[in-house]
Amino acid sequence: MPKRAIADSACGSEENYTYCEKKQIIVLIKYNTLDREQTKAWAKEIGRIENMTYDEKLDEWICAKGERLVFVYKRKETIGNGYVIVKRTYRCTACAGCPFQAACAKGKDTKTIRVSLKNQQQRQEIRKRLSTEDLFFINSSSCPMNG
User: What are the residue boundaries of the Transposase DDE domain, all occurrences included (predicted)?
Assistant: First the structure.
């Protein structure tokens, strides 16, 4: 039987997902916004990266209006325990006059996002895994409750 990691969403981080991948552990750990992503309110937040489309071929994000956020630079961030996250920054150059600008870009600035593509890929895999047969495993397992 394959190894599986089941934990609270507080454990759903890029670092933990990467550790499990390296150890060949099947991850069944929600990330912190997974449940909220399923709500209508979340879907209406057009400025959220989860509501944009990523064009892998051009390495650009596409907003609700269809404008492109182009790659600007990448930066490595080291968290407290030494794990390094590569964050990529993307910026839209066509926000002026956009009817969604106030909701999307938070004011008069152009829309800028900073994202770990690795974590976005991990989140996509988690969404897929938890929406299929692995969800049955979680629900049918007898996991002890903390209390």
Answer: 62-135
